[in-house]
């Protein structure tokens, strides 16, 4: 049987991570995977998370099955966090998932069940896993322009009533470019007129302009439109990468429709993994339900955001000092963990080959993984690969 299996495509990010791991050069710099690292290059466990884990260990609750929707306290806390305050009954429901990726897949299955002829629109450029997840669910995929606000609106005016539009709510991966608020408002107007459903991917809220600021677009769409789908990840802003903690949220216009949507999500989860792991969800619920822990988490999240912004600003300043000012200026306006370098795949390969700097072939680098002491190395490497093009 296995001899009949054709060679499948490798995952581009994890292939690069493996190549980095095999690179013997001590100066090598990993800016591939989307994880936050502190000034020592370590991905830390957040202090509020560690305290929540201690409390959970002392409580030593049963490991009995939670049910297909996962941890209900976590689901309530995520609804309140994402949508703001108390969520009116009959307006939204949530199901715990295996991280944001699981939420994307469950919601993609819901789209296929409810709108089997739908096209799902994704940004160009897009997060590397968006298209594979949607196509694996059996959905047709089409792209819209992202970094050109007018092009974005023009493209999505072509989305039909049965279509779904996947939008990253903040800190766009891979570009770091987010629409202005007036563009989000225009998107809400377009969706209301055309009838397409927004499908929000929230993975980096709190790491752009601030937690509430980063959730503004999601809350605005939720207030103005009858139906919205939201995939939420706790990997980045809680540091729970390996615990695979996420949530699928559905906003609807009736309690009956939401009950049916929740059951459909549960059924999809049952066939994929039955139910999600408990630990990360219990940690998040413990943090968000305790005022002291919640405040500590918000403060640490703010500090992480500040360090990321400082790293991006330092990189831009160093590039400008090296004579790359016109080229580096737009990077200063980007937000979140990632910066999109306008470099070709060949130039990114040169960064990797000649300077031991690892980013993706599309030009994405993870500025949240850049140690402060390595800014000069990165800027010098970028300037070096740009020099031949300048000549």
From TrEMBL:
<dbReference type="InterPro" id="IPR004839">
    <property type="entry name" value="Aminotransferase_I/II_large"/>
</dbReference>
<dbReference type="InterPro" id="IPR015421">
    <property type="entry name" value="PyrdxlP-dep_Trfase_major"/>
</dbReference>
<keyword id="KW-0663">Pyridoxal phosphate</keyword>
<protein>
    <submittedName>
        <fullName>Aromatic amino acid transaminase</fullName>
    </submittedName>
</protein>
<keyword id="KW-0032">Aminotransferase</keyword>
<feature type="domain" description="Aminotransferase class I/classII large">
    <location>
        <begin position="29"/>
        <end position="382"/>
    </location>
</feature>
<dbReference type="Pfam" id="PF00155">
    <property type="entry name" value="Aminotran_1_2"/>
</dbReference>
<comment type="similarity">
    <text>Belongs to the class-I pyridoxal-phosphate-dependent aminotransferase family.</text>
</comment>
<dbReference type="InterPro" id="IPR015422">
    <property type="entry name" value="PyrdxlP-dep_Trfase_small"/>
</dbReference>
<comment type="subunit">
    <text>Homodimer.</text>
</comment>
<dbReference type="InterPro" id="IPR015424">
    <property type="entry name" value="PyrdxlP-dep_Trfase"/>
</dbReference>
<keyword id="KW-0808">Transferase</keyword>
<dbReference type="InterPro" id="IPR000796">
    <property type="entry name" value="Asp_trans"/>
</dbReference>
